[in-house]
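FORM 7B: Structural annotation worksheet

SECTION A. Query
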Amino acid sequence: MGMGRGVVEACAETGTAATGTAETSTAVADPVQKGPARSGPAREAEAPRVGHNKPRRTGSWCRALLAALVIGAVVIPLSAAARPEIPAPAPAALAPLTPATLAETYAANGANAAEASRMAAADGDERRAATDRAMADPARHLLAYDGRGPGLATEVLGDLAHADRIAVLVPGSDTSLDTYDRFRATALNLRHQLTHDAPNSRTAVVSWLGYDTPRTVSTTVLTASRADQAAPHLREFVRQLHAITGRTARIALLCHSYGTVVCGRAAAGLDVSDLVLVGSPGTGADSAAGLRTSARVWAARGADDWVGDVPHVSADLFGTTVGFGTDPVSPEFGARVFAAGDGGHSDYFSPGSASLANLARIVLGETTEVTHA
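SECTION B. Predicted structure
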């Protein structure tokens, strides 16, 4: 439990408004939580809780606490500070991505991961060496890889060159190479659901760890600064996907927790068919229309997701906007709200869940089959 959670909960309990962030209330914000899972049988008919998120008046003492948190992060090292720099080669120099260069790209990034493993082992970091070594497996398809520091990776599940429907997963905070297996598991679950539902379809799933995610115990998770840095990279990645697959491929962005802030920042003008927000603390926009996208905007929250109990507001503190505004599952936001069952913050991609079934339907374009909350 981080410092941000204490501030948010204190403000919420006294009836004043703090900030509605996803990662301030959990140890991890990728789709698999570090703490005990709170899952149960999926009940598709059960609607997510959307009634506790009305903005409340921000009290002066609450603002002071948040201000202290912001200032403290600048001058006081926090317990979850980034790991020391991990030795690894610079990312491989690659030709522009096209169907013809995909195999070369996968091989070059695999070789880069193998070299990163050797360097980490020589430095005595066996854990990272094992992670890099697994990523270097020739059966893995890496579109990008950077083993330095927290690390970055973009992995493809499926035949990307011939896919006509692509799901891109965008993770939340505390997602790095050290926690990548949990993020990858969500992509595998979605891939299995897609092949089960439509075995003859041409789909691919991409796990995009393409940005430096914020730490849960930090104030970066309370602001859009990391999302602002990530947005141009996500836009460029979508452009590259279209260069590989052609303009006819339909791309759905599936964004979780702080990743919904990233997708919100990147949304304007993005060439995707669907923008999906799950477990969202808000996007920074007041409404789906405010995202300025032609994509269908979807949102969902499991009945046991603690994000439903966090105020979805924003406040200006010393020139910094803290919090992300309107709740995406609220009627005011105007998204297409779909059923996520009774799962928690980490359960949206769990096998057998209502949310995973609906996510697959959205990716496949079976929008009339999506069950609504």
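SECTION C. Observations
Residues 1-82 have pLDDT under 50 and may be disordered. The chain has two domains: 1-33+45-81+149-373, 106-137.

SECTION D. Sign-off
Analyst initials: ____
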